[in-house]
Amino acid sequence: MDIVLITTIIASLFLVIGLAEPLAARLRLPYSVILAVLGMLIGGAAIFFLRTTLTDALNPVAEAILGLPIRSNVFLYVFLPTLLFQATLGMEIRRMLDDWVPILVLAVVAVVVATLSVGFALSWTSSLPLVACLLVGAIVSTTDPSAVISIFRSLSAPRRLARIIEGESLLNDAAAIALFGFFMGFVMLGLPDPTLQDALTRFPLLILGGALTGWLIARAAIRVMGLIPRYELAQHSISVALPYLAYIVAEQSVGASGVIAVVAAGLTLNLVGPGRLPPQAWTNLREIWDLLAHWAGALIFILAALLIPRLLEEFRLSDAVLIGVVVLAAIVARAAILFGVLPLLTALRLSPTVERPYRAAILWGGLRGAVTLALALAVTESFRVPLEVKRLVGILATGFTLFTLIVQGTTLRWVIRKLGLDQLSPIDQALSRQVVAVALQTVREDVARTTANYELNRDIVRGEAKRFGDRLNLAVQEAEETTEILERDRITLGLIALAGAERDTIIARVRDHSVSSRLAEQLLSDADRLIEATHSSGRTGYRRAARRTVAYGRGFRLAAGLHNRFGLSGPLTRLTADRFEQLLSQRLILRDLDGFIHGRIRRIHGRRVSELLTELLTQRMKALSRALDGLRLQYPGYAEELERRFIRRTALRLEEREYASMREDGLIGDELHTALVQDIAARRAAAEERPKLDLALQRAELVRQFPLFAGLDEAAIRRLARSLSTRYANAGEVVMAKDSPPRSVCFIATGAVELENAGQVWRLGRGEMFGQMAILTRKPRRVEARAMAPSTLLILDETRFRRLLKRSNRLRAAVRASAEKRGIDPDTILPA
Which residue spans traverse the membrane (predicted)? Predict the structure, then answer.
């Protein structure tokens, strides 16, 4: 085939892709629907011109279009990894974790249910074998999010709804393609219908093998990218190779799911990449992948649509009935999950509530797309599949895809409007008025400065100022005198604005390198959670979300458990260091918000609301200071190292700004400026290295601070530190059970512990010990010890405790005082 002609066709396809988006916007139709229609028109026109006797002039072009090497392996090995990888990079993973139950139910359970529903419905109404019917079910169970998300965004639909659909569409691709590969093997080999044992035998390898492969390859790629921080283009090139290597290694070498490998690799890079790559490099990488995915998504759709006329050439009238069966079975299965399973999980408190309008939008928004067509094409290409099976699979998958695009896609916007998901709530409407008022005040100040600088005609300035002032007064009046908004809603509006300012401040601090990019995603996720919690629950939601930002999460508790039980301190060390840096960054950001309250919010909402917001912000600062003080007590010196690192980063930022100012003033040339900036980049890379947190060294520091060990020399302190083990206890955790055998003594390094025995309660704090009386009396413990707050305990076994007791006079005095307090003669228990 002529290479010039192929190049011309590909360039023309890009031209079609470029014109399709504005055409879709003008026609108010989903972008993917327009691409599908254009692709079908091009493919149908090519077939028409080849078979018509009207003219032969266009035959070479038609032959070239129909002769394009459009094969299923092109979709699965070239385009699909790009789409999946970019989708994982763009996911707000930490926000999606809030809805992980409904996302997994829709992405996995719904796919399995749809596969079985469609499969059994077809087996009852057609002559296809059951395994071929299940294959059709797997093909049509994967959804395409691109059209739905674009419609939601154009209508300002809730962001949570878009996140749920995006997460479902990403993960159900993996589930559906894994099921497709499973059933395709049985169809090609002519094996009997698979059993549950077959599924349980093969699926773990597909899923777990793919996840492990993707994770290992991504970790290796990230490590290499971290070794070349100054070579941004090289990092981007490695990221482009990553999904393809993960897909090919998983499919060809491991025999696992390549789709799951790509998803695992993308999730790994999404979580780890921002902390390992420079902020600008990570931003540029995301932008490159956005462009690649846009091209890949459009090409896979339009190329797949070119095949639709060919796939439907052998369509029979009886096939329409089977397409109706597939449509009905798929919709019923999806509705059963949305309106049956999800409400049940919510009632059992296993899942957050997904509102009924959301579920209705998700039901009608289950559009199918290029992945469904690509999987159907893979069946029609296989010479091992019987001809009738190939014909029906191609027609049913294509017909169902056309139904979802043409019927559901074109009416989805109307459905969303009917459900009221495009309407702003009263509080959002009030927020919009507040935004307009604040913006106009800022614009007035900027316009006044501009007109003064340019010395414009005073009469014109006065006239325009009067018009603008009237508009500003009207906007402020509407914001202040909205009768339907209660005072509590005004407070909510102020808190939403405050949380939005917090998010903007985070972005600004990341850009100027004051806040590390390592934790930028976590901080932004916390800010988004503040906004949404305030939207839904007002002041209570804001407080609850704010407490969550300083609380110890499940990951920290798991890491503490690994350290306490198995001595694995790596995860705990990383999470503790992250917590240190997160709290320090939050403190920096919150201190910038006080000016926003007095400068912006007070002008719109008045003094009372601004004072209340200041009080809430002060409470957050106090909680933040308490959390930081607790960490400083646990790890003396480490917080100071992080603060020194912050000062170094700030100094580099200011130095870089001075060089930029000198270049703009012509004091230095571009060559010198480039050299200076490169030197700053090298020093910044070194400053970004976070100091290591060594739990063993920190334990020695804690021992030195104990009054009980003040009489020990340095060598004895080091030996004691090696003998002590560290245990981390969360608030409410039982650290010593009643009637347990006495084997060790606990020293409270940080936190507080409550002891209870026979209704009597007493509390111990930092520097005190417990558990010693049971050891000395050689009796089972009579008290239960429970942590009152997150606490760090130093544990010393019985033998070493008795040895230390003989050497430390302070420790003997503490034991004597404790015994006398409990009415025990200390001379009967202390060694001579």
Answer: 6-24, 31-50, 70-89, 101-122, 128-149, 170-191, 203-222, 242-268, 288-308, 320-341, 361-380, 392-416
> What number is the average pLDDT over the span 464-471?
68
Same domain, 716 and 660: no
What is the DSSP-derived secondary structure letter of residue 569? -
Highest mean pLDDT, choosing among 67-71, 89-93, 398-402? 398-402
**Global confidence as pTM:** 0.65
Q: What is the total count of domains within the chain?
A: 4
Q: Which of 119-123, 438-442, 466-470 has the highest mean pLDDT?
A: 119-123
Classified as helix, coil or strand, 769 is strand
- Are residues 721 and 625 located together in one domain of the fold? no
The first and second tokens of residue 523, run together, are 């901080």
Residues 666 and 739 grouped into a single domain = no
Structural domain range at position 747: 698-828
Q: Can you give the three-state secondary structure of 11-33, one letter per residue?
A: HHHHHHHHHHHHHHHHHCCCHHH
Distance between CA 518 and CA 632 in Å, rounded? 21
Q: How far apart are CA 139 and CA 304, in angstroms?
A: 14
As a whole number of angstroms, the distance between CA 828 and CA 777 comes to 9
- Where does 384-519 have alpha helices with state H? 387-403, 410-418, 426-454, 458-480, 487-511
Token readout for 145 is 């999010």
Q: Are residues 265 and 322 in the same domain?
A: yes
Instruction: For residues 448-468, give the mean pLDDT.
Output: 65
Domain check: are 683 and 617 in the same one?
Answer: no
- Confidence tier at 241 by pLDDT (50, 70, 90): very high
Residue among 531, 635, 538, 540 at smallest CA distance from 583? 635
Q: Is residue 451 part of a domain?
A: no
